[in-house]
């Protein structure tokens, strides 16, 4: 990457943009509602079941002016979900400033593995065992979305729930490839532990992005 471009990426004036699309939020608290998604490339958390591995290598995604990303998003929706990749790989300050200054609601999907930057109206924290969230994000997460891939993930979810604020909404979401096996266990778990809710990747059932 050109040095001048790298400098702009480092300060968040440009971001490696993988894709952007207007769709229905499929997961968690806001599921079922229209939102514009901005998917930023770059992630080194390394979840073996990640459903967007194409996002991991930031070099494959063109550095794009943040101001252009903002202006384009606002053409579609006042609710903008920033995801990735791991968006907190990058400084989210300018992106969220731009979005909010033009009246958008800013939502983030994050593993929380890197320091929290940006001004967010909604933070969905989806913690990963392989690279734990920073301490600072637990107190400000609006929803905790724990992925259930195997039985040990229930204990991890409880451990993570102990760290978030009291009003953080707690979700268990089945890892897509093992959903038929894990959903019955999740249903049983949520009935026994009703502070938890079930989240499904409803966009995959709806055949939308
Ligand atoms: C692709 S990640 C990108 C944002 C961020 N890196 C993160 O992990 O939160 C978006 C959401 O999809 C979830 N996810 C990724 N792969 C999944 C899969 N195979 N099954 C279910 N959820 C998955 C993540 O846990 C996260 O909540
Ligand atoms: N429709 C839709 N909803 C989503 N919620 C979180 C997603 C993500 O990949 O971060 C996602 C996604 O990729 N599509
Ligand atoms: S942190 Fe998110 S983007 Fe990164 S590998 Fe895990 S699920 Fe995929
Ligand atoms: Mg997704």
From TrEMBL:
Pathway: Purine metabolism; 7-cyano-7-deazaguanine biosynthesis
EC number from the UniProt entry: 4.3.99.3
Origin: domain of life: Bacteria
Sequence positions that bind [4Fe-4S] cluster: 43, 47, 50
Catalytic activity: 6-carboxy-5,6,7,8-tetrahydropterin + H(+) = 7-carboxy-7-carbaguanine + NH4(+)
GO biological process, one term: tRNA queuosine(34) biosynthetic process
UniProt remark on cofactor binding: Binds 1 [4Fe-4S] cluster. The cluster is coordinated with 3 cysteines and an exchangeable S-adenosyl-L-methionine.
Co-factor(s): Mg(2+); [4Fe-4S] cluster; S-adenosyl-L-methionine
Residues forming coiled coils: none
Residues bound to S-adenosyl-L-methionine: 49-51, 85, 126-128
Gene3D superfamilies cross-referenced by the UniProt entry: Aldolase class I
Binding annotation for substrate: 24-26, 39, 83, 209
Keyword field contains Methyltransferase: no
Matches recorded under SUPFAM superfamilies: Radical SAM enzymes
Chain ranges of the Radical SAM core domain: 30-209
Family to which this protein belongs: Belongs to the radical SAM superfamily. 7-carboxy-7-deazaguanine synthase family.
Subunit structure as annotated in this protein's UniProt entry: Homodimer.
Name listed for the protein in its UniProt record: 7-carboxy-7-deazaguanine synthase
Originating organism: Aquimarina aggregata
Upper classification of the organism: Bacteria, Pseudomonadati, Bacteroidota, Flavobacteriia, Flavobacteriales
Gene transcribed to yield this protein: queE
